Structure formats: structure tokens, C-alpha cells
């Protein structure tokens, strides 16, 4: 597992709600090119986080507690161990893709959604498989036996670096 972080641009303000990015399109492309496409293609989840407004710090955390998330993750991993028991257990990220497709097929409509996104964003076959795996995990976290369009759509949202970048200047 790898976890990494970076600024969205050289000035650090790309996507900020409070400060304008002063980077040119050329500078943005050069900055993004520091990580090669094939490396980015191997990162399953890529998200952009924005700075919290000061008021949010006063309000405290919202949403699920860490304990609640821990329970959902444990349940999802148990589902995966059960699904892949014949392979000796494992998780969605480790099972051979052919087996994942057999055990967690996409309906034609859901697969069409994924294929349209691949075409629209120019994604690779590797991205196809990784999005499928992430969607399976999202469905497991939701306690769903089948991967739905909402799971694929959410997995697609985690492909931040596959989106075009536009400076705010």
C-alpha cells in the first residue's frame, strides 16, 4: 500500500476557494508531468482535498466516527475473505482479475457506464480493472452483493489525475 500527497500545482493554490492559482497552463502541465502517466495509472484512489474553512474547525468532526468506519471495513474484508475462500482468502486488490470478473460481474448497463468513462477520459485497460476493483470494494463497504452504477460512478470520482487541469488565472 502506498499513500502519497502533493500540491495540485507549483504555487499550491489550484482548487483553493480562497486563493487564486497563479500558475500558467504550461507550468501546470510540467508540474503534473513529474509523475509519469503509467505510475499514476497504478494509483487506485486519487482524490483532491480542499483546505477546511476556519468555521469547520470550530464545529468539530462530522459524519461517521472512526469506530463506525472500522466496523464497516472489517465487515467488507470478511465479505471478501468469504468470496475468495476457494483462493485461500484475499481482498479485491489481490485476486486475479479474471476471478473478480467471474465472482463480481457487472451488468451490461453498469459495464457500459464504465466503458463510456474509459472512452471519454482516455483511460487505459489497467484503469478499467482498477476502477472495477475499487467499485467492488465500495459495494462491499455498502454491504451490497452486486456492483451497481453508483459504485462505479464513485470509483470513477477517485481518478482525480485522469481529469484535465485548468488554471484559475
Low-confidence stretches: none
Radius of gyration, in angstroms, nearest whole number: 18 Å
**Strand percentage, roughly?**
under 5%
Structural class by SSE content: mainly alpha
Distance between the termini: 36 Å
Determine the mean pLDDT: 87
Number of strands: 0
Task: Return the domain count.
Answer: 1
Largest sheet: none
The helix/strand order is: HHHHHHHH
The helix fraction, in percent, is 40-55%
Large-scale geometry: globular
Number of helices: 8
Oligomer: single chain
Keywords:
mainly alpha, 169 residues, 8 helices
Verbal overview:
- It is built from eight helices and no strands.
- α7 crosses α8.
- The chain has one domain.
- The protein is globular.
- It has 169 residues and is mainly α.
